[in-house]
């Protein structure tokens, strides 16, 4: 089993739930080292004192915060830790919110949260199940590795998932970053209709396994081929930007191409249809569905008042409507 990268406790109200945090993702890029061109000599980086030119040991390095006019306040790790006493072992919950209210723009990295021990698994399970029934996410803060993180915790099947998030002042204003954004409804009706057709023709269910990092695959092929003295076919160049005068025709051709690809798909894949409302008389198995999935099913069944229902109420209403 993997070792946790952090252990502590989720605290809300007077309740403390011991948990262990594990990485939920990993990078798969090709790892490179640096060499001097034309040689097999590795490049090394050293921590050099810019005044003396001498190398400095890592343990002798402290952090300095500039306070203006070239002046710095020096702080060591012990001083930094002192301003967050106890918090490095506490994940403090400040509010429970609707998960749909959190803009994905704020999400950073995902972690699994498991029970802190076998003895505390029951308390962990209670929190997980209560959150699943309420359909809400817990928003809190965590100090880890010398930094405070804003976090969102949500139930996901058998466990809790934690996602670190940006604070509000870390998200840039798009109006200050992006110039010349076109106003809405500037496109011709025919172009808008064709664009919507293209979106429809390329629509499908979200299946993560359908997508692959082809660039990393090509880099691996390049390394393998070059190690054997072979050549690798270069990638196609990027397409030219679509001119406004050609937009309708390009959209039309894109719709045709997408439609042909869908028609040529294997019959087994083509026969798969999106989930539909169950037929009357056949009760759906909804016990394991999330609140979002129940809401989707409730919309198909036209359940009145569904948007204001809790998860247990949704489950009951869906069973009754089906």
From TrEMBL:
Physiological role: With LigD forms a non-homologous end joining (NHEJ) DNA repair enzyme, which repairs dsDNA breaks with reduced fidelity. Binds linear dsDNA with 5'- and 3'- overhangs but not closed circular dsDNA nor ssDNA. Recruits and stimulates the ligase activity of LigD.
Domain of life: Bacteria
UniProt KW keywords: DNA damage, DNA recombination, DNA repair, DNA-binding
Composition-biased stretches (Low complexity): 235-244, 264-278
Chain segments carrying region Disordered: 225-245, 259-289, 302-322
Listed Basic and acidic residues bias regions: 312-322
Residue ranges occupied by any Ku domain in the UniProt entry: 53-183
InterPro entries: DNA_bd_Ku70/Ku80 (IPR006164), Prok_Ku (IPR009187), SPOC-like_C_dom_sf (IPR016194)
A GO biological-process term: DNA recombination
Family of the protein in this entry: Belongs to the prokaryotic Ku family.
Name of this chain's protein: Non-homologous end joining protein Ku
Pfam family name, one: Ku
Origin species: Paractinoplanes abujensis
A molecular-function term among this protein's GO annotations: double-stranded DNA binding
